[in-house]
Amino acid sequence: MPKIIDGKKISQEIKDELKEKVAHLKKQGTEIALAVIQVGEDPASSVYVRNKKRACEYIGIKSVAYEVPEATTQEELLEIIHKCNENPEINGILVQLPLPKHIDEDTVIKAIAPEKDVDGFHPQSVGAMTIGEPGFLPCTPAGIIQLLKRSGIEIEGKECVIVGRSNIVGKPMALLLLRENGTVTICHSRTKDLREVTKRADILVVAIGKPKFIDETYVKEGAVVIDVGIHRNENNKLCGDVDYDKVAPHTTAITPVPGGVGPMTIAMLMNNCVESALM
Ligand code: GUN
Q: Catalytic site residue 74?
């Protein structure tokens, strides 16, 4: 039987550790505030934003919500970000993605002051991570490292294969696994023989955004499988990029969907908010 990596439990441990830290900081007179900016009413984004606000409340971080209409112009959004950059009472700024099509995401990400970039998406944060300097780490890949470490899974010397090369997950995941001394390969849609590569993995991280794409034929016996995907199937049930029922019996450890990687992203965002107040 594989070990089921319980992201809900591990994220709760992290949130409880942070709650204690925040209470301690409050006693010393340090308050932490996160600006949460949502443009439009994408239902999935609304769920994420609500969960982020809830996590703030649980830990004792003030969340300052900017929920602005879909028709907000790029200039108006940039103005909100500039105000937050300059407001000393705001420690972190989060702009929920995706943004409406008339707004350029890169421009918006670059407008966030790097010292408030709790998502870790600013080019300065990405550069610092790449060369191992201090800076905010992107929440989903940082959360995956925590899942592995807190489950006692060694990374050093392991064959780590990532499927997906997004700026938010695939690329930073590769850098963080490399930092932990893993041997890292990134696969993507142009990879010639995907199975041949994924079957080498001791640790397989899947972030391709296709429901149940990875079945047992892609996985080496005894691998550790981390599933970043989240989708609703035809029966309105949540599933990942990995076909869990087919893959799980062949693994030594696997993350479920829901309750695997998802809760870790928010826990690491909260961690970045606490760090932002200590900088
Ligand atoms: N949309 C999907 N994932 C994320 C994330 O980690 N941060 C933000 N800001 N938007 C997202």
A: no
- Residue intervals in the chain for CATH 3.40.50.720: 139-262
Centre of ligand 1 to C-alpha 96, Å, is: 5
The CATH-assigned architecture of domain 29-113 is 3-Layer(aba) Sandwich (3.40)
Catalytic one among 15, 52, 158, 171?
A: 52
Architecture, CATH, for domain 139-262: 3-Layer(aba) Sandwich (3.40)
Ordered per-residue pLDDT tens for the chain, 279 residues: 899 999 999 999 999 999 999 999 999 999 999 999 999 999 999 999 999 999 999 999 999 999 999 999 999 999 999 999 999 999 999 999 999 999 999 999 999 999 999 999 999 999 999 999 999 999 999 999 999 999 999 999 999 999 999 999 999 999 999 999 999 999 999 999 999 999 999 999 999 999 999 999 999 999 999 999 999 988 999 999 999 999 999 999 999 999 999 999 999 999 999 999 998
Say which residues have a Cβ less than 8 Å from residue 138's Cβ, sequence separation at least 6.
Answer: 119, 120, 121, 125, 129, 168, 169, 172
What is the C-alpha separation between 231 and 112, in angstroms, rounded? 30
117 in catalytic set: no
Strands (E), 69-158: 92-95
